[in-house]
């Protein structure tokens, strides 16, 4: 059945409201961090960061949508999501949507391939959590892989994770396989203040500042930073602004950082879990996809008198030679700028990976397309800030396909369940804290691939420090073959007496990625373009290298969010994309995070809060210590001790005015004014 493209015809009895809404206009990307929350006649729309069913309304179609075409450059999760939102919320016929994909398979950086004989490979994995509003919105409508209709991918995901809680019992290792205490964040009071100071800092004041420029050397050696950098792949020379955004975005998960209880994982690898079902749905809807099609440039009309910029054609190169696709004024173009996994070099058991010999970084097609666009106007950003320092953005991963061996026996010791059981194994990465490479490995639920034999386990390992010799294999990781990487890993597990048996039972496949953390490189305002750059009438950017108000990069959610913003903005859809989950404004989360950062001990003032709120309706906002139960909130010991401490503080400062001055001095230092 053909759908009408006239909103007022669809809702004739609502015509007066539809007309009023069109006149009102909608800010597609509201910013919760720049507005003061209140209710009034000036707030007809929901709060910027409201999450819930009320924000799941389906918008009316844009006038003339059935006559418009959409071109999507790249079929990673951002591109696939753009097509989803064009169809569901934009009401565009799927047959009007065309993907231009450089590879011979969709998925982009969300890959997963191989077999048990040759070895499986995944270049990277994505740690996930429950508040990915846009991501879960998509997969709440995509048919499930292993359940019948009407069940969805989200339904399957919930069954697996609700029944099998994720956690880690061996997050940090040292001394060749010994579990290191990771129960606390190991932060001194001064180091805690460094974190608070970063949370208080304005985003505008953090341009081009690195993590090591902000934090003290002592902070960089704490449990907190080890857990943080290995979980998110942060380096000391990366952007402290991005680290700040991560802290705000995931503050509600702070007390699950050490043991991974804050995470949820799919049953299979990311390609089979997400890309495959979404692409099946899109193809069933009727989208077009042209594989082996490299987009080299966009021909744009840049000389209009009103400052607008419009794509006129798409320049491509395919197996049949050069091609040009004409783009109408009302057609749409969505481009994934840059690439984290472009120019990946591969290795195996016997061969180390070799990066492409290039005189200049960023020569791959994804980066070159962005470079070509950036030369047309500064509104398209500065790609060289992200692709211009390969040593600073490189790390390597190795996928291990394992038959039974002493390595699997050691894995059982470090896992919360038998890895062969299908339940959570390591619960996320395990890091060797005394590894010169800062090496980590993980075992997700098995099988990791649908066709994986019962006696095979797939492990994944990576390291952050690329330029240091190994502790057993005396070479930097990128110079090692797969077997040598496996030997180094076995050394840190205390398994060097069993190397021959382990090597015989294990296949390795290496991925050395020169841009894998390029999205974290230090940046300033204007380095990343807006999703819809200034003046653009039919072009939107997506992925990990575009600007958003408060969201972070290197997540599935950020890819989906940018795609959704692009669709809503170009089509003028009267619907908002919710801002990030507001956990940073939840007093319960703030108190819980404060105690977590204080090694799970009572923080200054907690005793007073307990005296005020204990035994009242609001006592549930108070955090409990590791060995406490709710009845302990009514005890006076903590209050008395902290009251005495405050009295001593005032007495030492002689007068109340001096005490106020002392407190103000602390606040000024935190805000960077001292």
TrEMBL record:
InterPro entries: FAD/NAD-bd_sf, Oleate_hydratase. Signal peptide: none annotated. One of its GO terms (biological process) is fatty acid metabolic process. Transmembrane segments: none annotated. GO terms for molecular function: FAD binding; oleate hydratase activity. It comes from the Bacteria. Pfam families: MCRA (PF06100). NCBIfam families: PRK13977.1. This is Oleate hydratase. It comes from Marinobacter guineae.
